[in-house]
Structure formats: C-alpha cells, structure tokens
C-alpha cells in the first residue's frame, strides 16, 4: 500500500513539470496557432542557462530562475519577430516545418558548442528529503513541484484576471474579432509566444536540478507536452492540468509495476502517444 | 404545367430519402425528412436559417451518416456509403464555399473529376472530357491558369464543371448563387438549366427567392429540421405555414 | 458542339519538363562516368561520398513520393531501418543477398501499409508526431529484443555488399536511384499523380470527386517505404555494421525531408539536386562542424521555408503553378 501511495506521489510531483511545459505549448497552439516543434529546445536552453549560472557563478538555479525565464522570454519574442511572424498566413505545413527546423538548429547548435555530455547541477539540497509518514519526498522534487504550482497559479491568474490575459484569450477565440475591437494582435502573438518559451525555460531550470542539462533533454519533454495537449484537446488550458497528472501518475505506475521497465518504458510511452493520436482520429468524426 | 401535375407521371425517382434524421448531441438537426427527387427535375430545398438544409445536404453527400432513415440513389442503398462510392453511384456535389485544388490548373481540376468520378477511364480520355466541360461552362480560355487566380463566378463555374466531370445522375448544388451579382446570378441560372437539359437531375439549396422561382420545378420547405411543405413555388409560397416560418420575411419570399 | 473535332487539347507548357528531363539525364551521365574517372589515391573516399549521395537521393525522392499525397512523414528512418535490419537478418538466416534485398524492401512495404492504415485520418502535425512515435516504437522494440535475435543495443554485423567492391556498390546504388527516378516519373505521368495532388490539396473534395483516398494513400506509403528500405539495405551493406540508434536515428527522417524541401517539393529533380548539394556540403563542412552537423539541416530547412519555399528547382520556374516533373 505504501509503495502504491509512494508511486502516486512521485507521479503527482512529476506532473508539475509536465504541466509547465504543456501549458507553454498550449499557449502557443491556442493563441498563436503554431505548434512549436522547438518547444523542447527552449526548455533545453533554460536548463543550460541554469547550469551555466550555477557552474560558473555559483548561483543556485532557483535564484537564477527569474533571470533565465526573462532571457528566454526575450529569445522567444525575438524568434517570433524574425521567423514565426512570416509564416502565420502560410500553410500549416510550412509553419510546422519552420519550427521543426528551428528545433533541429537549436538542439544541434548546443551539441556543437557544448558536446553531447549531460551536465548536472549540484545544489546543497540535492540529497535532502522530506518524510511524510511512511512516504519520502526528494527535496528538489518537492521544491520543483512548489515552483511549478506557483507559476501555473500565476499563469492562470494572468490569463483569467488581467487585461493581457483577456486579450490573449480573445485572440485565441477569434483573431479577426479581436482585431476589430482594437487589440494589437501581432503584439499579443509576440507576448504569448515569448511567455510560452519562458514557461518551457522555467521547466528547463527545474529539470537541470532534478535531472541534468543536455542538448537532447528537451525532445522527450516536448513530445510528452504534445501528448498532453492532444489528450486535453487543443487549446484547452485547464484540461492540460488534468492530462499532466494523468500522464505523470501513469508513467510512475508503469515504472514501479511493469517488470523490466527500463528499456520498455520508452516504447510504452511512444505507443501511448501513437495510440492517443490514432484513437482520437477514429473517434468523434461522424 | 399546372400545379397539381408538377411531377410528370412518367418520371422515375433518382434520389429517395426515407425518414432521414440526424442528431448532434441533444439537437435534432434533421428529423424524419422524406422526399423523392425525380429524373430530370430541378428540386429546391429552402427554409429559414437553421432549418437544417445544410445538414440535409451533408447527409445526402455523405459528410455525415444519418442517425436513422435510409437513402437511395436509383436502386442503390447509399445510406452509409462513403463519399467516393456515392460519387461512383452518380451523385455530384458543388460546394457553397468553392474549393478548387489551388495548386492545379483549371483544366487539371476538372480532369480529377473526370478521372476518378468514372470507372475505367484513362488519363488522356479524362483530359479530353475535362476540356469539353471547360468549353461547356465557358472556362476554356482559362484552362491553363492556376485555379486560385479565378474570379468568384469563374470559381463557381469550375466547381460545377468539376462535379459534372464525374458524370452524375444527380447534382447537389449548395447555395451556388451566394455572393454573385444579379447579372452573374442570371448567367448561373442559365448554366443550371443547361445542365438539367443535358439529362442531369438537380437538387439545390438556395436563399435567393427569385432564383428559386426561376429554376425550381418543385420546392421542399424545411423548418426546424422537418419538412414543412412541398410543391411548386406558387403552392409553397401561398402556404400560410411557410409564410409564418419565414415570419416577417414575407416580402422577401415574394420578391 | 459535338461535331466539332480537331480541337486542340491544351498540352501543359512543356518547357520546364524538358529542361528537368535534360537535367536528370545529365545527372545520370555524370554519375555513371564518376567511378570510371581517374580519382587518384582518394578514390575509395570519393566513391564512398558518391555512394552516400546516391543513397541520400533515394531517401529524399522516396520521402517526396509520400509527401505528394499530403503525408509529411517522420517515419522514414523506420523504413530505412527496417530495410537495413530486414536485410541483415535475412542474410543471417542464409538467404542469398539478391533475394534478401527485395524481401527486406517488401517487408518494410508491408509494415508501411499497417502504419498507413491506422494513420489514415491524421493530418499535418498529428500525422508527423504519430509517425515519429512509430519510429521510436520500432527502434525500442528492436533494441529490446534478445541479443540473439537482432543484436540488441549493440547492433549487428552485416556482410559487405558485393564483396566490398566500391565501384560495384556505387553502381548498384546508382541503379536503385534510377529505379526510384523511374517510379517517380511513372507516378508523375499516371493517374496516381492526380490522385496524390488532389488528396494533398483537399482531401474531402477529392473524395467527393470519387478519389479512393484510402487506396491512394496506401499506395504512396508502399512505394515510398519500399524505396526507402532499399536505401537502408545499401547502407547496411556498405557500413557492414548497424545499430538501432544509428539506423533509426531521427536524423534519417530529417535529412530526406530537408533535402526534398530544399531541392524542391513534389518534383523528381529537386530531391536529387538537393541531395547532391547537401551531401557534398556535408563533406566539405565535416571537418569544421564535427558535433551536431544537423545544425546545417536545421538552418537549411528554416531558410528554405522562409525564402525558398519551392526549393532550388523553383528558382528557374518562377510563377509556374503545379507540380512539374
């Protein structure tokens, strides 16, 4: 029983990060209408920036987090200006391939400059843990989860309670209409895309603490985020939270209870994405 | 032709709907709709907005499957047939919002219809037929232009030419006059008459009443998903229930 | 009107088609002459570059065949890998190489029909992600099978193709590229071309006009995967060692996609020109950019989409619509 509860708890904690990455992706899909295949690479940039700050300046990742988030927000906004903006009216194929190319570019740029090694960030609380009755929670995991929750709270507050958030949701629902009532759609797109990248970077900072930084660390998270927003239904922000928990918990269950999990758990995960997509395509329609 | 005899006794049914219904969740978009469409006839389906006309057309063309009811094209039961089989059975459709294949030339667009709408036809033959149709629909001069360069009227002609290329027995036209100027609409009316005269039965949805008056041999009026009345244009526009359904748009009805 | 005959059916403007055929002809003459040139002491190395350029051409053109039907796939690494592994395992089972090659290709073709069958209703990014996930599933399965079956993560040794004769290997690759070009041109001139283009430009409209979308999408998958698997066979026989990570690498899906777009989508000449340019560039840059060479592919892909959406062949057919030869 304890093992089961422990597994559930691990899954829940993991889902905080998933929700961060997926909310970011949902924002870019929902508001800008772009599926950003390079989303994971912005996470990777965040992870490396946190690692760099920690390795060279000795700054704790959780302290560098706001700066990293802001920096990657800027990179995202710039990316929107110089590339995404020019394919907004192009066929979906072109948009997809553009961000796909961007992802390949960023990932391999990192590989070129930094090599393929994984970089770990060491923090004083790395090995600490909390004891909750019979359950154990790793310190970094708990902190990361708390951060993720706080950020998601802020994001949803911004989206539902501020002018900018209302503008974003208005644009998401009806671009032409939003334009007619005087919303600067281009600016909203730029901000939304920037925030989307910023959220990925925050997740990256947390990943650098929990896992490591490496050129390819983002890909898996991006795919998971994609699976989550497909499960939630495109552009459904609250659905993202539930789908994240579902994914996190089911992954934890597979790892704990499926024998020989290791090598096969990847296959299970990709089979899940594949199955989700295929089943959705055959349901609903007529 | 007198009102009572709007359907010639000798006419054979080509398209027959029996108690067609379609529910979306709790909404009954189409309820128990039955009608018979006779060979060589131009049949109009009219009704106020939200009456279920478009849903009905989508049921006929295979975009949706009906919740209940049956649909026959001549002797074939096509209730659950996929779109391509309906096409082979002799059902053609032109969309309200034109959908040319944008990267093809006008001629290639029509060639696709000729090539896949009929069985056992070869490419050179299909190209030949397609060109014939471009001449018939007044598009021959534009054969080699990209489909996305056409004007709206030309697009609609292309839409019709492409549907005709599949050699349909019945042609479904979805508000093809929408967006056309009166002079253009008159041209389109002539085009539709010409198609009927070549032996193709036509079922069309239309909002513009003068067009219905000029074209339709018979009119089916829908309201709230059901058939409200059926008959000649004169009969249905004289029907008080129909007038009530259009509530206040009586002037429009008789325009 | 019915009596009128001798009416000219407008031929497609043939100018570009002839130029494209001419360019293809020149390419093949040069490619055929290449291994017979006095290449000096770098002969082996140059033949190897030539060989992999031809393989890249097969991959790119076969990817393009599938893309023509509107299916932009990230599963090409899977077919490449299935070809390589199928070939290696058949040889291991004692099948002679001349039979193992087509059998491996047909196996990949069969698998592609299964994949195409279930991804039938997906489009755009959903299709891309599903095919990517499929590739990963195939890779992890092969990697996790017992080592005695498919070598596991360590990979397999493969006997060298044609006893390691470089010129022979090169000519075999050239023959298979010629086959791929033949298939591509045959598709272009047949009913398939119209079906693919119609499905790509409006799937529902195509169905309304009687196009059997299921049949043609599967046909595209089959042709494309069989040819990609042949490229995989060539790869396995040339490198004589295959591993799941290398063979099923995402890079093997990315390069054909980028190559086709850079060269010119939905054409026969484009992917081949693209493969030649990118492959030669790769060799020239290889010493400068060691790690992460794909950076170039990412950049080329982005720049092509932004500034050259019709690829290099589009440069001399500006303003012309439709997929040319």
Give me some keywords for this one.
heterotrimer, B: 255 residues, alpha/beta, Rossmann fold, 2 domains, 6-stranded mixed beta sheet, 4-stranded antiparallel beta sheet, 10 strands, 38% helix, 25% strand, C: 325 residues, mainly alpha, two-stranded antiparallel sheet, globular, disordered N terminus
Detailed description of the structure:
The complex is a heterotrimer of chains A (286), B (255) and C (325). With 286 residues, chain A is mainly α. Chain A has helices at residues 2-32, 39-57, 61-82, 92-114, 139-161, 163-173, 175-180, 185-210, 217-232, 237-257, 261-282, and strands spanning 129-132, 135-138. Helix content of chain A is 77%, strand content 3%. A two-stranded antiparallel sheet of chain A has the order 1-2. Chain A starts with a helix and ends with a helix. In chain A, 49% of the residues are buried. Chain B folds into two domains: 3-90 and 169-254, 3-Layer(aba) Sandwich (Rossmann fold); 98-167, no CATH class. Helix content of chain B is 38%, strand content 25%. In chain B, the strands form two sheets. A six-stranded mixed beta sheet of chain B has the order 6-7-8-3-9-10, with helices on both faces. Chain B has a four-stranded antiparallel beta sheet with strand order 2-1-4-5, covered by helices on one side. In chain B, α3 (106-117) packs across α4, α3 (106-117) packs parallel to α5 (152-165) and α4 crosses α5. The longest helix of chain B has 16 residues, at 182-197. Chain C is an all-alpha fold and 325 residues long. Chain C has a domain at 20-32 and 42-249. Chain C has a two-stranded antiparallel ribbon. The longest helix of chain C is centred in the last third of the chain and has 27 residues, at 213-239. Residues 1-14 and 319-323 of chain C have low confidence and may be disordered. Chain B binds chain C through residues 61, 63, 82-84, 87-88, 93, 95, 99, 101-105, 107-108, 111-113, 115-118, 123, 127-128, 131, 135-136, 143-144, 146, 148, 162-163, 165-166, and chain C through 1, 7, 9-10, 12-13, 190-191, 194-195, 197-198, 201-202, 204-213, 321-323.
